[in-house]
Design goal:
Helix content: 25-40%
Bound molecules: beta-D-glucopyranose
Shape: globular
EC number: 3.2.1.-
Distance between the termini: 31 Å
Pfam family, one: CBM_1
Protein name: Glucanase
Radius of gyration: 23 Å
Enzyme class: hydrolase
Largest sheet: 9 strands, mixed
CATH superfamily of the largest domain: 1, 4-beta cellobiohydrolase
Family: Belongs to the glycosyl hydrolase family 6.
């Protein structure tokens, strides 16, 4: 029917050339049998392996063509109607996800695709393949990842223009000097002793410069997992005490400069089993409010992110025995306890909660265990239907299948937590793909994955 319609157009409109796709029409992709060239003034542009499209312009932007082998599509997690995104760095009140589609990380999609090819069980493979369509966050865990951000912004901008639905990109800012001061597995590329603060500022500057080029793409960022939580509870660790001033200066630099680029931000706030202990709540709230105040109380600093890369339930059916003694034994209880304290200090913060690997509960020996916990399953899918006015979205911050830390004791980043009996072994370096772990996340997913 479509081709008949096009043929009729060719007869009445000489400007339409037979065999050429029109502006914004499909012009390629896996299984595509239609025209592969575009009308004058447009260029066939690869958006993902399954879909190429005639976009206005004569040259293919290099940032778009460079991802021809990986998938970059989008997914909506919001059931709320569009409120008319501004697409400008002007902050809007309310939930940043409302009215936007989440741009899917092409990097994670390619990791998942490679993983699926290694799975021989066809049911498991089909289930695993669906994970590529669930939005995660892109971790900018070193300066080498920044060019990817440029590519994604360009792709997201093009997709937003071609579909008419604006795109939201989810990133994690994660490159502090002397990173992961109380553990070792995620030690980063910068050290305070070796120009770390200036290097970090340069890392932020590069990110900001890219984001400013694409004001039509909304960016949501989680700011520096574990950093401020370590300053609340781990100042007895020498490396954390020595990093305190630099962490605060760098986080302030990130918050103020990313706000200048219109980025919506959630500062990492550990999890229920860390800052959710009653004795930690007030010091944590004080530090977060201070950091928010020092950053000028920007409305773009929406609030806090909890449970990032952890395993806690949002609503536990019953307390996991390892949580004994803490009345805030799940993330909802933690947030309900923390939010009013922040409010008392003047900050109406809202939250996002990572549930990527929280599908299965009661699997840890101790609440503090965090490394590649055996038996974990993918959890509640990202949604803005959170059941709480404090929580903007349930999200998947940790890209499930990427490792938490190596179990190889001779590695410089070896952390003994990754050799505990509840940690799956052998495990590769943090951030690299851990196939066996991914497969169990899929098979143990809760809710289960229908393929
Ligand atoms: C690693 C990072 C990685 C992130 C997400 C962290 O534990 O240190 O390199 O990007 O997890 O997988």
């Amino acid at each position: 029917m479509k081709s008949a319609f096009l043929a009729a157009l060719v007869t009445v409109l000489p400007a339409y050339v037979a065999g050429q796709a029109q502006e914004y029409d499909q012009c390629g992709g896996t299984g595509w049998a239609g025209p592969t060239s575009c009308v004058s003034g447009t260029t066939c542009t690869v958006l993902n392996p399954y879909y190429s499209q005639c976009l206005p312009g004569t040259a293919v932007p290099s940032s778009v063509s460079s991802v021809s082998s990986i998938s970059s599509h989008s997914s909506s997690v919001s059931s709320a109607p569009s409120t008319g995104p501004t697409g400008t760095p002007t902050p809007t009140a309310g939930n940043p996800w409302t009215g936007y589609e989440i741009f899917l990380s092409p990097y994670y999609a390619s990791e998942v695709q490679a993983a699926v090819e290694q799975i021989s069980d066809s049911t498991l493979a089909a289930q695993a393949a669906t994970i590529a369509n669930i939005p995660t966050f892109t971790w900018l865990d070193s300066t080498s990842k920044i060019p990817d951000l440029g590519t994604y912004l360009a792709n997201a901008s093009a997709l937003g223009k071609s579909t008419g639905t604006k795109q939201l990109l989810q990133i994690v800012i994660y490159d502090l000097p002397d990173r992961d001061c109380a553990a070792k597995a995620s030690n980063g590329e910068f050290t305070i002793a070796d120009n770390g603060q200036a290097n970090y500022e340069n890392y932020i500057d590069q990110i900001v410069a890219l984001i400013k080029q694409y004001p039509d793409v909304r960016v949501v960022a989680v700011i520096e997992p574990d950093s401020l939580a370590n300053l609340v509870t781990n100042l007895s660790v020498q490396e954390c005490a020595e990093a305190q001033t630099t962490y605060l200066a760098c986080v302030n630099y990130a918050l103020t400069n990313l706000a200048g680029a219109g980025v919506y931000m959630y500062i990492d706030a550990g999890h229920a089993g860390w800052l959710g202990w009653p004795a930690n709540l007030s010091p944590a709230a004080q530090l977060f409010t201070q950091v928010w105040t020092n950053a000028g109380k920007s409305p773009l600093i929406k609030g806090l992110a909890t449970d990032v890369a952890n395993y806690n339930a949002l609503n536990a059916a019953s307390p996991d025995p390892i949580t004994q003694g803490n009345p805030n034994y799940d993330e909802m209880l933690y947030i309900n306890a923390l939010a009013p304290v922040l409010q008392q200090q003047g900050w109406d913060a809202t939250f996002i909660v990572d549930q990527a690997r929280s599908g299965v509960q009661n699997i840890r020996n101790q609440w503090g265990d965090w490394c590649n916990i055996k038996g974990a399953g993918f959890g509640t899918r990202p949604t803005t239907n959170t059941g709480s006015s404090f929580i903007d979205s349930i999200v998947w911050v940790k890209p499930g299948g990427e490792c938490d830390g190596t179990s190889n004791s001779s590695s410089p980043r070896y952390d003994s937590t990754c050799s505990l009996s509840d940690a799956l072994q052998p495990a590769p370096e943090a951030g690299t793909w851990f196939q066996a772990y991914f497969e169990t996340l899929v098979s143990a997913a809760n809710p289960p994955i229908s393929a």
